[in-house]
Amino acid sequence: xxxxVGHVDAGKSTLMGHLFVKLGLIDESVIRKYKRESNLxxxxxxxxAWIFDECDDERRRGVTINVxxxxxxxxxxxxxxxxxxxxxxxxxxxxxxxxxxxxxxLVIDCDNFNQRFTKGLIKEHLLFIISGNxxxxxxxxxxxxxxxxxxxIYNNIKQKISNFIANINFCKIKNICFIPVxxxxxxxxxxxxxxxxxxxxxxxGPCIYQILENIAKIKIYESKIIQDxxxxxxxxxxxxxxxxxxxxxxxxxxxSNETKISIIINSGILNIGDNLSVLPINxxxxxxxxxxxxxxxxxxxxxxxxxxxLIISSNIPLYPGHLIVSNISNRNNQTLTIPYYIYPxxxxxxIFVQPIFIMDNIQKTNLYWNIPGKSFMLYFHTQTIDAILVxxxxxxxxxxxxxxxxxxxxxxxxxxxxxxxxxxxxxxxGVTVLIGYIIKNS
Length: 442
Hints:
By secondary structure, this protein is of the alpha+beta class. It folds into 3 domains: 2-224, Rossmann fold, CATH 3.40.50.300; 243-327, Elongation Factor Tu (Ef-tu), domain 3; 342-439, Translation factors (Elongation Factor Tu (Ef-tu), domain 3, Beta Barrel). The chain is built from 9 helices and 22 strands. A hairpin with a 4-residue loop joins strand 19 (383-393) and strand 20 (398-410). The chain is globular and about 70 Å long. The mean pLDDT is 82.
């Protein structure tokens, strides 16, 4: 999963739209239609952005409002792109998408970089990426065509971003690269800049697609290792256990007896006809249709994977953040004893967090947060929920939070197979104070 973040008007949706057009995933007639329609309302440069900005309000305002996802295939790996809003009013949506991702693309408008780096959201987006514990970062320096592909501008941005990241001592990013592009003209997106081109002959690195391709190939290799580790791991298998884990990311439509949803499958196999349980509400659903992120209709799919459209039989309201697990057939619609475990998933109202890191610079903002009784926002998989800090166990450095209602969470196990779903971000007053894993109370 790759999350695309950046300041409003940096060109995120245009960049991703042009990528999908150049990959041949969008019919030429569609982009011609978008060009005609965008010109009619005086937004001709937004035609490629409309591939991701699908709702009328987004197109009218010229800004991304909703997180939009589309996928493409690299060998046996489906790469899912999450295009996020850049406006400050929609920061929670952007942050929630970042928590789920494994890699990030930060899109920077080189024409307005200094102002937005000093006073805008670029630093905040970098903190999202770093605090989300993502492994790969592609910094796309966009609109280079407006600055005549000036290498000094490129180097200045690269230096400032690199220095900012280097000064954050908890940064876990393994790979970072900087790529100059023109999203509007589709330069350096799926084809490398030709060395004899006068405008950017100084750049000798890869294009965006080549980087994504390499990340996907590494992911295929790592997934096999993780799967082997998971099969060897016995930390949960002696208990009530679920092979299938997915989270609901969006409710597309709903009728009296049928619901269409988008989900991310973390582990396990999904077949048409499967009966599954939705937690924490404990209701049974039946899978009726599966459409993957790349638009393919399939009868079976295996996680980890993004399912763009899943039609299920359900007459009970479902919400983003609900978890889907193997069917708890003998407990359907019954009230479960809390905490309830179907490992590694749990339903509880006390969340125990093992920190990956704690923000060292919090005290500089006079935000004294690590005091029991304080209120926080918790972000995990696609859930956002209010909580109160109950206690801090200083002996083993465990933070305990209490939620007003029961929630379904994924617990971290020794093999780390579900590291993305068990990852949690704790925020207070719009500031990230803690990143960690949800663990079982020992």
